[in-house]
Amino acid sequence: MRIDIMTVFPEFFGVLDVSLVGKARRRGLIDIAVHDVRDWTTDIHRTVDDTPFGGGAGMVMKPDVWGHAIDDVRAQADISQTCVLAIPTPSGEPLTQARCYELAKADHLIIACGRYEGIDSRVAQYYASQPNVVVYEYSLGDYVLNGGEVAATALIEAVGRLVPGMVGNPESLVEESHGQAGLLEYPVYTRPANFRGMTVPEVLTSGNHQAVARWRRNQALERTVQRRPDMIARLTNLDKKDTAFLAQYGWIRPKKSDQPVRKVTVRRADNNDVNSLVSLAAQTFPDACPASLDQQAIAQHISENFTAEHISSWLTNSDYIVTVAQLAGELIGYSVVVTNPDLVSDSGAPDNANCAYLSKFYLSRPWRGSGLYELLMAATLQATQNNTVEHRLSHIWVGTHETNKRAINAYKKAGFIRFGRRTFRVGDVDNTDVTLVRELNLAE
Question: Are 234 and 228 a contacting pair, CB within 8 Å?
Fold first, then answer.
């Protein structure tokens, strides 16, 4: 790869003689030349700038000087090869690792380092219209530097290290931040194992390579969730363990799906949710019923218990906690907890005056098995625990039909244990439910 740097401060680039870039130059992997743009001026003062048309602060670098300089540098290379003219500018597109991979494939890269108010815009416009030239105006971030030299150095470091042979261990390019994995890199450690009372995570010294790999993967996922959630939304190479881990942070996708994960919000319901809850309740309640139950009985139960008036009453009653899961404006799950034991009259309930009742817990069908269950359950239990001061709650119980093995197993997974049975009427039909109970402050 040939890289030509155009600048008014050529001495700035002595840094490229050291480290991996310097070694790559000496090995012939990268050919870097630095050119002083002032060498193409024609006046005694070697002027490279002038006042801006239309007035305003600062000076603008002259297009004629830059045009002569770029033409001559291009002529020194094979002009038939595609040349990338990279121009650092705060108004450019953000430099990304993906773009660096593309630039690493280029044969010739010219970096035009502007100063003052920048280079006359016609320079970029002109070369963008020329054959075998690709103009790339880029920015390092949402801030302004005195000139393009720092950004040019960053580009050379980022692109140069992707040239084959530049980095000793190519695998490091996969694991690092913004690498092929699409994640921020996991935390790294070295000797000594104990630094000022802080020890290295035990898994890293266990010798279990699979456990180490999983730990690093989870750490990379967690760090990316916390610092760059926009990157999480673009991930496609996720396995079951990845999706289970991400679900803890509210990033989910339907079970057995390859689509990217999406951010779900779990929150307390409000009056704006009434109509959506009516629809979701009618959609999900039949799935909790036994196959033998008459559809007319199910429809009757829904019409008598899931009206807008019923749901509004839950939201206005301080003894009810209604929690919803929302994704892209749509409710995909909800729970209802009755925190006042005096409001629950059920022969199958635990004989405990300090026991809340998990009256409803439903997920939209596409999101079962996505990790949403654990997320909504954790939020439901936490909201109930936060209410323990008023009602001195210590336990919570739930009932589900005795044939609903999926729900029973899910509740057990959440720490509930079987308590007994109750009769639950749907329409005019009596059904036998299993009841389960758990401590609110149960250690997870």
Answer: no
